[in-house]
Specification:
Blueprint lengths: L1 H29 L10 E2 L1 E2 L9 E5 L2 E7 L9 E7 L5 E7 L9 E6 L5 E5 L10 E9 L4 E9 L3
Parallel strand pairs: 1-10
Antiparallel strand pairs: 2-3, 3-4, 4-5, 5-8, 6-7, 6-9, 7-8, 9-10
Length: 156
């Protein structure tokens, strides 16, 4: 009987250690980089920019230029393009309207042969007739997340 208690105690200790290791590995896998836990570095947009000509955002030595197709309308694809001097690994795009729920409008920009990041996007029609949008670009580098918000309008 004494041997059974020792075996049970040893098995319980091994199970506890295994669970501890499993929890540690799960936590490590879910937080693969520290920058994802910290808030993004906000890039300041130049005043009075026009996305048809190109807008620039800057912060701490990082510069980003964003440009959109000149004629943008709802329900028709248009191009958004981003270039930067930073070593960007991925670019995410969310398109929102201030104070109005317009559903999930998320895209991933892909790197072109020229090194610029681009995507074709299509936006829904706002039933209230509004056409003012905000493009929120998340730029992922190896150790930092940068965010640039660019207001723009669709043609009617």
């Amino acid at each position: 009987m004494g041997g059974l208690k020792k075996t049970s105690g040893l098995a319980l200790a091994l199970v506890r250690r295994g669970l501890l290791i499993l929890v540690s590995l799960t936590f490590a896998a879910c937080s693969d980089s520290d920058y994802e836990l910290s808030p993004p570095q906000i890039l300041r947009l130049e005043a009075g920019c026009d996305v048809r000509q190109g807008c620039t955002g800057q912060s701490d030595g990082v510069s980003v230029a964003v440009r959109m197709t000149p004629h943008r309308t709802a329900l028709k694809p248009f191009r958004i393009e981003l270039s930067s001097d930073a070593n960007i690994e991925a670019v995410g795009l969310s398109l929102k309207m201030r104070g109005m729920e317009m559903g999930q409008n998320r895209y991933r920009l892909l790197r072109s042969d020229t090194g610029a990041w681009q995507s074709e996007v299509t936006l829904p029609v706002c039933t209230s007739g509004r056409s003012d949008w905000i493009a929120i670009l998340d730029l992922h580098t190896s150790n930092r997340l940068y965010r640039l918000s660019v207001p723009f309008t669709l043609d009617k």
